Amino acid sequence: MSSDADRIVEFLYEVGQLKRLPRAGWLFAGVQNPESVAAHSFRVGVLSYAIAVQEGANPDRAATLGLFHDVPETRIGDIPYVGKLYLDVKVPPEAVAADQVRHLPAPLAAHIEALVAEHESAKSYDHTPEARCSRDADKLELLLQAREYQAAGITKMERFIQTMQASVVTDTGKALMDSALRIAPSEWWEAFGKR
């Protein structure tokens, strides 16, 4: 008979797959070694926190939404936009998450299911301020990554940048987007040489 700890560790091994799962859309743009889904989710969590603080939302909740938002991708993969045009995906991320956590202790499972559902709710009008912050962070993280790849010499990034600009809805997200488009990715460390 397995324990709650066993089930949690099995879930953690599954979530660990996100460290090895590349963000698929970057492959179409010619990125040889794209970031992993886990790397993306980390910065989404940090961005969610920052946006939520500025927007007056709960930053801890927003960061947690950002951190967990792509957990279902361990089962369904990171499907790029071009792939979604051809796939009839009938199982929403919320249902995938529910299946992923069904063997976890009930309180933990309920929390994870709620996190994924709340983040996904930002696609509709029935969403929390924290979900809106997390969703903006998801879009802004992609824009930041595109700018970093662009600065590294990968030329097919403009489409990603333009697409994300139209997706950001919070005032803070829009301000961050404007700054990200103006400030070079290397600015943070180049400033050390100017001291």
TrEMBL record:
Per the UniProt record, which EC number(s) apply here? 3.1.3.89
Query: Which GO terms of the molecular function aspect are on file?
Result: hydrolase activity
Claim: ATP-binding is one of the keywords in the record: no
- SUPFAM superfamilies in the record, alphabetically? HD-domain/PDEase-like
- Pfam families xref list: HD_3
The reaction(s) catalysed by this protein are: a 2'-deoxyribonucleoside 5'-phosphate + H2O = a 2'-deoxyribonucleoside + phosphate
First-tier enzyme category under EC = hydrolase
Q: Which domain of life is it from?
A: Bacteria
Domain HD/PDEase span(s) in chain numbering: 33-152
Q: InterPro entries given for it? A: HD/PDEase_dom, HD_domain, YfbR/HDDC2
What cofactor does its activity depend on? Mn(2+); Co(2+)
Q: Which UniProt keywords apply?
A: Hydrolase, Metal-binding
- Cite the record's note on assembly: Homodimer.
Protein name (database record): 5'-deoxynucleotidase
Query: To which species is this protein native?
Result: Lentzea miocenica
